[in-house]
Amino acid sequence: xxxxxxxxxxxxxxxxxxxxxxxxxxxxxxxxxxxxxxxxxxxxxxxxxxxxxxxxxxxxxxxxxxxxxxxxxxxxxxxxxxxxxxxxxxxxxxxxxxxxxxxxxxxxxxxxxxxxxxxxxxxxxxxxxxxxxxxxxxxxxxxxxxxxxxxxxxxxxxxxxxxxxxxxxxxxxxxxxxxxxxxxxxxxxxxxxxxxxxxxxxxxxxxxxxxxxxxxxxxxxxxxxxxxxxxxxxxxxxxxxxxxxxxxxxxxxxxxxxxxxxxxxxxxxxxx
Length: 272
Prior knowledge:
Blueprint: H1 18-33, H2 36-42, E1 46-49, E2 52-55, H3 61-71, H4 76-80, E3 84-86, E4 90-92, H5 117-126, H6 134-142, H7 179-183, E5 218-220, E6 233-236, E7 253-255, E8 264-265, E9 269-270
Parallel strand pairs: 5-8
Antiparallel strand pairs: 1-2, 2-9, 3-4, 5-6, 6-7
C-alpha cells in the first residue's frame, strides 16, 4: 500500500482558502521576529556538518510549543479540526494535531507532526535557521563528515542508509529490527499500518551523529527552492509507516506544502 497526495475520493490532507494566507503570513512574521532570545528559546542541539549546522534530532513537541507560545501560531491542522493519516485514502482524524499526534497528549520529546511545510519553515526562521536544502539534508544523512566518527562509521564514507550500511536501528515499518516496535509511541491509537513514531533521539545515532534521519517521520526540506505557495515540497528519510527502502538517498516524495499528516515532521539547519 502506497500513500498518495490524493485519496480515492479526491480529499487532500491540506488546508485551503483563508488558512493558506494565514499560515504563509506566519512564515514572514516569524522570519522578521527572530532575535537572540527566540534562538535561545528554540533550544536546538546543533551539529556541524561540513559548512552548515543541522539539528541533532527532528523538532520536538516541546520546541514547537515554545514557538507557538511566542508567536501565537495556530496550525492549519488545528483550524481544520485535525490532521490526517492514509488509510486506503486520506482520512482526517479529529483532534490529531501536534498537541495530540495520535489523539492524546504526547511526551515533550516526541516529534512535532501534523505540521505543514509553511509552519515548519516558520519555526526554523524563528529559531535562527531554515529548513535544510535537499543538498544539506542528503549530505548530513549519508555522507560522514566527522574527522573522527565513532565506530562503526568511517570518515569520508558515503552510506546507503542514514543508519550506515544497514537500516537496523531505525524506526521503520518492518525491516529495521524488533526495537522499532518496542520504541513506538501511539497512545493507544488504532493504526491500520505501522506501530507509530518513537521519541526523538530514541533510535541510535547514525551518520554524523544524527538521530532519525532515516525512519521515524518524513522530514520537510526546502526543495525545490523555486517552488512558491502550496506547490509540492520534498520530504526525505522515510517514516514509521514505510520500510527501509524509503530511507535511501535515491528515494524521495513530495507533498503540497500545506499538507499536515501524522508521519511528517522536520528539523532545522543554519548556514548556506
